[in-house]
């Protein structure tokens, strides 16, 4: 019992179940195939990033630039293909390289200055936000890139990032598949590989880890690069879904990812959490976001509702951890 | 003005209550979209229909909101298209599901192609163009356009339109709607930095109030025009501080499509006949400001 | 599992590790000088000294964390100059630091293998050999006489003595011939310290050489074969068990004389019961 | 020398001087009376909050809800006067009470659950953001409150919050006076009163402070209430300056306050920093914000520039601290 | 400033503090029982014991952090049951905890006065008496024989011994008649520990009563008048200086017998040099 309660994701699982039941019963559309497909899709985009951010948080760091980075990658592909006529696949690689570069920059600054990652990535966040807007405006004259659908090769890449397939009468977006795969992969990496072991160790006690030979610096680089890679993937999934991207894409989402991870049981202080928890956190967020639409609530209350949910979730998690006698 | 407890809705004859979903690209708290929402809700009240409203400036999330709305099988769907590509798939899905769609505000060009029945309103670009022309007529040559939400496509379109209407380049100045006092500073600084500026175009009534004060503080002689009206804006127009306000009549952009979709459900009417219905732009000037003021106070202008 | 003939007693003639006139300076600070000592298989060398005596500095040299700046260091009779802890480790010298280098929230078995995880499979399918590592952890601990309820519990929930035991077991498991323990008993109560001393005895009986750093002469006396006493970075000598008494050791290491010298300043007569 | 370098605000002072020189030389409007009045006013609004947030950070806590709270207070006064016809002064008191209530709620949650204030105030931030919008809409039918100028008593209160007076040819806004007074007061409190001593102690080592009898809980309450009070003041200064308030007021500003405090030398980890440093941080921010406008740079680059500045500032501070041999 | 007749020797007849059959249980855990001891002005009572012996529990009771559950506690001959540290403090009993309760980044003088700042002025103009506090800090430290370069330097930059001294000086300054020191020398080297012992002697010479907790019998012997030895929560007796020897004390407190009992398990004969 205590063992079960000690799992990071228990609180989130209970909450997810509760929210699912609530909206299933109180609205008619929530459980329809189209409804399920929508909230799953909504969750998946938050979820992919939330899982990456959760890994980073378990490793003891933050990334506030993750949201803006999803925009950056989309914009790079958009500009490279529509403005420079670059091949879609090349553009994809270029965007990935740029994202990884930013991730590496974050990691390098954090590991070599020992500054808190909150401040370092806050700076990167501002820089990316500015660049997204200014460079896009400079190169395209507008703040949104359109006409991607007409780019050659777009449809091929769309199979990977923007397609959907029928399942149980639902029109399942491919991003849901990515989400499930990545959550599974992240869980596997965390629990069943050396790197995962090191992530927990580095977040739990960096000094001790270094002493027994864990390459702390490399682990942190790996984590920031993972977040950057996830931001690229989400950027692509969004881009190929709607075939357009705006300069403001992703701003404000960094908090959502952190919220999902925390709701899923990650400790802000590192060393504790799970990928499944973060995925559940995103599921809760996605269900709530779309459930409110199904329930036809006034959307003005949305933020207040989400804030209350966050508060409730951390208090429940706290209670669960206290129950389990874990004082760390 | 519209009476909330009008009897038209109570005897709605058709099967069940009419529900109409509206999904726009307006972020929560946006003054313009709030009036659109008010219009739609009032129409719902007047006609005995349920109107739901959602908005998100991000095309991915806007299309998700559309999908969710479609999943509830409304009797009609109203969508604004700041980024037509972004919502295309979702709109087509709605059309395929047999839900009548009306587009509003921007997206006039793509509306019919996406399968919408008609378009209500007028593009931000066209409204901007009209404002630009009017400023030119008032003698402005060097105009700044104040963008209060960085990267907002609708606002960028208005400024682009204004430049084209004016016939000379317009410099965009970025401020933050979340900090009006500092927005005022930035406008003032801009005017101080370049005293030759003789026109300011603001895109939000709150910013207009701040801009009017900034012009006074900077000792500038720039003429001020704005988008959208509010109580304070009408007062300032009457006082001559603001030259005119472009009124896209957002209330109609919200009200009319609800009426159209309700009529269609009850009566099979297809208003517009494939042609767009223009909701504006109206101009609020010294002449009609007093009249508009009463409506603005109620959040309907 | 109780006391037995040291397995490695036969090899005890060539010492596992020997230092002659060893010294270490940090820049201008001479933290250690002129230390001579040796340790064979199945032997326990106790290093005693007050705070700042240079114990940690000596260990760091032996463990390969710092290079020495004077004297010679021989492993299996061959002169060495360790460049890194990995270097020392590859010559069978493992170190258990005072803070144990454990991650409190991680399960026992993950801590046991941290930094040296066992894997199965190849390429992208290489994964932790979880079952094997769990079993190994349990077995290694049992060998030292510890039975845990659950090797999956966070190591932070173990008692201090149990944590020491895990760290020792880890060093032993990873093929160390020589285990250096930095003050393993200093944070423990009598019972727990007794347990750790027993684990040390067990490890010694299995033929390992042990360097046991402590500032408690009683603990040293309970398991030590040789005693190296440091003060202010210099050696006060290496003593065999039969060349010294516990009292003498106690007096030597706690700085009894120095305190006596302070006596008048403290307003006390030079104490009657002092050991030296 | 080392003693001087050890002061938290040295880095900020040097940076402020550099930015001042740069814009003075490169633009013509920056040093004109009207120009100075503008950037001083801009700095003052950030500065008042930054000083309060700096106190809080020295005391080891965060407040992400501070920005939204400036909106809340303005909205309360707006609604109370224009909708309910309340006396302006009564409305002011009502708004202050509400802000203090939110501050007390934050403090209570943080001190009684030991949850990180980052998460607690993030939740409050969301809740306030939602309430600002939904309640305003519910009560007024719009998302912005106007017509305040016509409220009786408005002009009296304006003397305190929205007036300006001539000085050296400048039209000095009263908020600059508030800013200077509050910075001086905060400096005095920090360095010359018991409470200030306790703030440093609580942020530096809460456990030790508790042992010697410092009322840790009360100090944290005091700090959160101070931030709330400052949010109220800034809300009023903005409200009476532009006589209108939007439901979205203050959102996103919470980061700016933290940035100013950090640029001014506050440690994210608590126990170190100064009110003057935070005020200088705000001065830098205000000068940069308006300087960019004076220099007629493309405002799209604004965020990127500010991000770069933040990065530079923390790196300089880090360097200064390392020089001073301070390893904490 | 050197050794002198204890000033308060005349008052030594009614003890400052006396405990009789004192005991303390945490729920079902009996951490301390049957402790009897007394301490007069100008006396040093040393409390010795291994880890977990109950030393901290005893202090917590004396300092008012926990109430006792058995026996009686008398201050100046009057029975007391302290409800809080403030309560004990108001009766002249100050405690210097092992972690010293210092804030590393704060200047020395601010730490000195933390929680009991001196102020001047009234109402809203009440402010710290900075100059006075600086001077007091410097003077108090000088009285104990410490001269700091700068009372404005962060206390984290002082050495361990200096920090102890500041903490002791603080206790003395705030009117304590009885100062309880929890292991003030355990983290210090010989020289620094010697300094702290000298500070203790100075404080004693100024007529204070001192309860000195330590696990180093040499340190205890250097300044102690009486010795209270704890083991497993029970008192092994309170000894006057002339009623015991250092050796006996050493054996008693380090648990020599227990280790001897372990002897066979450790594969060693019962050690010849042991003290009991
Ligand atoms: N990296 C270093 N640079 C300079 N001096 C050092 C360094 N490490 C240790 N010293 C000095 O060397 C001396 C011996 O220190 P060491 O840590 O070896 O003592 P120790 O016996 O381990 O003490 P303890 O019991 O407190 O751990 C001390 O005076 C210390 O100040
Ligand atoms: N709050 C508590 N609740 C339950 N048991 C406690 C508590 N505090 C102490 N104990 C127990 O009381 C016993 C004595 O502990 P105490 O801390 O007094 O020992 P100590 O002599 O100070 O040891 P050390 O030298 O390690 O500080 C220990 O067995 C401990 O587990
Ligand atoms: Mg050491
Ligand atoms: Mg203790």
UniProtKB/TrEMBL annotation, chains A, D:
The keyword Membrane applies. It is a multi-pass membrane protein. It comes from Cryobacterium breve. It is found in: Cell membrane. The keyword Metal-binding does not apply. This is Xylose transport system permease protein XylH. Part of the binding-protein-dependent transport system for D-xylose. Probably responsible for the translocation of the substrate across the membrane. CDD domains: TM_PBP1_transp_AraH_like. Keywords: Cell inner membrane, Cell membrane, Membrane, Sugar transport, Transmembrane, Transmembrane helix, Transport. The chain crosses the membrane at residues 12-31, 38-58, 115-135, 174-191, 221-243, 255-288, 300-320.
TrEMBL record, chains C, E:
Residues 17-257 form the ABC transporter domain. GO terms for molecular function: ATP binding. It comes from Cryobacterium breve. It holds the Pfam family ABC_tran. SUPFAM superfamilies: P-loop containing nucleoside triphosphate hydrolases. Coiled coil: none annotated. Gene3D superfamilies: P-loop containing nucleotide triphosphate hydrolases. InterPro entries: AAA+_ATPase (IPR003593), ABC_carbohydrate_import_ATPase (IPR050107), ABC_transporter-like_ATP-bd (IPR003439), ABC_transporter-like_CS (IPR017871), P-loop_NTPase (IPR027417). SMART domains: AAA. This is ATP-binding cassette domain-containing protein. PROSITE patterns: ABC_TRANSPORTER_1, ABC_TRANSPORTER_2. Keywords: ATP-binding, Nucleotide-binding. The keyword tRNA-binding does not apply.
